[in-house]
């Protein structure tokens, strides 16, 4: 098992994303993932990453101000050019940071129509072509409606159908077990069924999104074994909100028999 710190959720005791790179390294991480670094230049983020000496595994699509609920326009008709501009900016950051994966966020919509689904799929087809040329991997993530009401993509089967239709090795599924449990449950069978299409995994306890060993619905010692048994050997993002200190909360890693 290889674990990377999600800098949008962990080490928030440091207000700056740049400082979180150093804190992640100090805690023992070899790699990180993050949301799009709003307000920071490519050079600033690259410098912080390289000074910390960590690998950047994944970066989220430039979506707008996430604090205002702006989570992308990938499924919004008429905003295809905005999507392409945001995607190009994200690719630029990913290449500078040597991040191989981009999380292509769908956006929030009320009363989605067939036109939204058509736009979403067409934009993903476009993205898959760019990703192929750049030797990058795009992942799409179903997000549960409790955490993000009106998020467009909240169905694993629909996500899988789109991935199969586009049929590109550069577009895969983000399997976040936190969302999987709240959308469809049946974790063991779901992991087995979805794993051939998975490009990235994330974890957090349900329902409070804390460390895997905190009280909640998921037995992560078992789930992590299932992920490994089903052939996943890539990075697992720790996209959880630490109960107290990010570093102190990492005791579960050793307790489960793993290391950073």
Number of strands: 8
Could you name the CATH homologous superfamily?
Divalent-metal-dependent TIM barrel enzymes
**Secondary-structure content class:** alpha/beta
Low-confidence stretches: none
What is the CA–CA distance across the termini? 9 Å
Q: In CATH's first tier, which class applies? A: Alpha Beta
Counting structural domains, the number is: 1
Can you give the mean pLDDT?
96
CATH architecture: Alpha-Beta Barrel
Fraction of residues in H or I helices:
25-40%
Active site: 141 (proton donor/acceptor), 239 (proton donor/acceptor)
Pfam family, one: AP_endonuc_2
EC number: 5.3.1.22
GO biological process, one term: glyoxylate metabolic process
Can you summarize this structure?
This protein has helices at residues 17-27, 42-52, 80-97, 114-134, 156-166, 177-183, 187-194, 220-229, 251-255; strands at 2-6, 31-34, 55-60, 101-103, 137-140, 171-176, 198-203, 235-238. It has 260 residues and is an alpha/beta fold. It is globular.
Structure description:
- By secondary structure, the chain is α/β, with parallel strands linked by helices.
- It has a single domain (2-255), classed as Divalent-metal-dependent TIM barrel enzymes (TIM Barrel, Alpha-Beta Barrel), CATH 3.20.20.
- It has 9 helices and 8 strands.
- The chain has helices spanning 17-27, 42-52, 80-97, 114-134, 156-166, 177-183, 187-194, 220-229, 251-255, and strands spanning 2-6, 31-34, 55-60, 101-103, 137-140, 171-176, 198-203, 235-238.
- The protein has an 8-stranded parallel β-barrel with strand order 1-2-3-4-5-6-7-8, surrounded by 5 helices.
- The protein is globular.
